[in-house]
């Protein structure tokens, strides 16, 4: 699995600047651009293979797939900053966030003909839009279960389920922002400050779901 272009060197001068959001945004934007490129079948086929591999990686925990972490890090444009990269025998919160954002994007793009990375539209807002437009009564309970759980694995399962619903109506969201939020949600809550940051993300997601719903019904 290789990116279609070399990672940017724009950020190399400052190893402390957070790059997760930019790295994920740039990577998925390049992938969807290549995948939706009808005039270059070689590029399109390469992007399709990358997306398929991302979906495959997403079916197993990252800790059980050393190759997956390597491939994800090579795919990021630009690379993560020095402090975002892990040092020990476990993936860092930023590495985990990048992994889950990109593998979720692979699911989101399956069978689509339009971009699923939509800058400045949050994941929760898109879920709220779907809830307002759909006749299904299961959307809000799914979203609420995702919000309420204290188990990271369960939360990720709910997220993938919601993304599958969004794919059905060709509704995208900002994967860079999504990765940034995942980093907070997947980080250990060892301090009051970390707990507060996690709750702040969930509060914003709840607000975005509600505003996405009523904005959709009023438009």
Structure report:
The protein is mainly α and 219 residues long. It has one domain: Orthogonal Bundle (Peroxidase, domain 1), CATH 1.10.520.40. Helix 5 packs parallel to helix 9. About 4% of the residues have low confidence.
How is this fold's topology laid out?
Elements: H1 20-35, H2 41-57, H3 66-75, H4 93-109, H5 123-133, H6 139-148, H7 152-168, H8 175-186, H9 192-218
Helix pairs in contact: 1-2, 1-4, 1-8, 2-4, 3-4, 4-7, 4-8, 5-9, 6-7
CATH evolutionary superfamily: CRISPR-associated protein Cse2
**CATH architect. name:** Orthogonal Bundle
Q: What is the number of domains? A: 1
> What is the highest CATH level, the class?
Mainly Alpha
Individual helix count: 9
Identify low-pLDDT runs. 5-13
Keywords:
219 residues, mainly alpha, Peroxidase, domain 1
Describe what is shown at a glance.
With 219 residues, the chain is an all-alpha fold.
């Amino acid at each position: 699995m290789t990116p279609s272009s070399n990672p940017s060197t724009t950020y190399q001068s400052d190893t402390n600047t957070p790059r997760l959001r930019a790295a994920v945004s740039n990577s998925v934007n390049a992938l969807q651009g290549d995948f939706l490129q009808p005039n270059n079948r070689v590029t399109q086929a390469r992007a399709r293979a990358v997306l398929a591999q991302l979906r495959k990686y997403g079916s197993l925990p990252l800790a059980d797939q050393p190759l997956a972490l390597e491939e994800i890090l090579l795919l990021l444009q630009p690379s993560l900053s020095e402090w975002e990269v892990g040092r020990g025998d476990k993936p860092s919160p930023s590495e985990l966030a990048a992994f889950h954002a990109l593998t979720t994007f692979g699911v989101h793009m399956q069978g689509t003909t339009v971009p699923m990375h939509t800058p400045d539209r949050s994941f929760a807002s898109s879920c709220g839009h779907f809830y307002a437009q759909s006749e299904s009564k299961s959307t809000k309970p799914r979203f609420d279960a995702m919000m309420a759980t204290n188990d990271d694995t369960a939360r990720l399962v709910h997220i993938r389920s919601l993304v599958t619903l969004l794919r059905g109506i060709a509704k995208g969201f900002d994967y860079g922002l999504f990765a940034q939020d995942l980093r907070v949600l997947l980080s250990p809550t060892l301090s009051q400050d970390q707990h507060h940051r996690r709750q702040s993300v969930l509060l914003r997601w709840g607000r975005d779901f509600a505003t996405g719903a009523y904005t959709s019904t009023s438009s």
